[in-house]
Description:
The complex is a heterodimer.
Chain A: E1 3-7, E2 10-14, E3 19-26, E4 32-38, E5 44-50, E6 56-58, E7 64-68, E8 73-78, E9 87-97, E10 100-105, E11 109-114
Chain B: E1 5-7, E2 10-13, E3 19-24, E4 31-37, E5 44-50, E6 53-57, E7 64-68, E8 74-78, E9 87-94, E10 104-105, E11 109-113
Parallel strand pairs in B: 2-11
Antiparallel strand pairs in B: 1-3, 3-8, 4-5, 4-9, 5-6, 7-8, 9-10, 9-11
Amino acid sequence: AQSVTQLGSHVSVSEGALVLLRCNYSSSVPPYLFWYVQYPNQGLQLLLKYTSAATLVKGINGFEAEFKKSETSFHLTKPSAHMSDAAEYFCAVSVLTGTASKLTFGTGTRLQVTL
Amino acid sequence: ETGVTQSPTHLIKTRGQQVTLRCSSQSGHNTVSWYQQALGQGPQFIFQYYREEENGRGNFPPRFSGLQFPNYSSELNVNALELDDSALYLCASSLGDWERNEQFFGPGTRLTVL
Lengths: 115, 114
């Protein structure tokens, strides 16, 4: 079964520092992978997606992720953290269930940005 | 372009009651998925509707049911509410049911069961 694992439930960085949020996937077929962000008391917003085109995917708000098949990873990075990046981040893989395409999410990583 | 909207934003019910949550999909989208997000966890897939038919379901009991209407809006119904049903319920819409299509989420409905 396809799944994702997010390493680190909490990550704290200083403003201006590199952000690295880890996601590893398990899939026997080429996966479709997504990163979503969730601000407090809100729904999920798509940051970026990998659909087997370029392995380096650029998203919104300066985030990017690199698909590495050899490491089964899809880590999310941002060169310089901003206070507004503080939120919960979810990695997800799209899986076919019957004829439905469902998203299977990781457990999430809460990003804290300090001054 | 109107995004995904959900109503109500908050709801409080008691055990055994029934609840209906509503979702309007993003303009042009014909597929709606529902997810349950318990506190501190990632969303869990409940089911998906494509062109008014349920085309996939997660590990949820039959007391979770849904509908999709001709305008592609959707309802989630939960009967015989249990305390563990307390969660944020998220609706997501997409164009088609292919895995590579991104799903756009609404703000959610916070359900509290007492």
